[in-house]
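FORM 7B: Structural annotation worksheet

SECTION A. Query
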Amino acid sequence: MALQDRERSDSREIGSSSMVSEITEPRYPTERQPAICIIMMPRDTNPLGTIFGGVILFHIDMSAAIEGHRYHAGRLVTVAMDQVVFKQPVFDGDLVSFFTETVRIGKTSVTVKVSVWAKRHSTAQTFIHVTEALVTMVAVDDQFKKVTIHKHS
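SECTION B. Predicted structure
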């Protein structure tokens, strides 16, 4: 939180998005392209037959980095992944889409919302909202010291 507090005065909100409240049911974003779309494979399953949460977290992190690099071409390191709640399981064979949206650009950081949807392999058009996360990444140099993000879109 300290990182976010320090940059709050020098940041701007992007769009009007915030984390989806428990009351509002999210809608599959048919009008957007996912940052990553991947079929889950048997190697990623746990003993219960569902995909490991860490595999989903890995793809959330990668999706956020793809979005973050729209604003900073250099190194970005993840410093926080907030509000991750696994709402539904993901199964072997599911097609999982990771949609991104930049919600904040600070002096040295970018915060990205990642929304994760699974299309069940057993049904034609059933999309399940699996989870979402806010990922905060900081721009760093070769010595991992913070640098200013100059490119704002």
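SECTION C. Observations
The first strand starts at residue 12 and ends at 13. The chain has one domain: 2-15+32-140.

SECTION D. Sign-off
Analyst initials: ____
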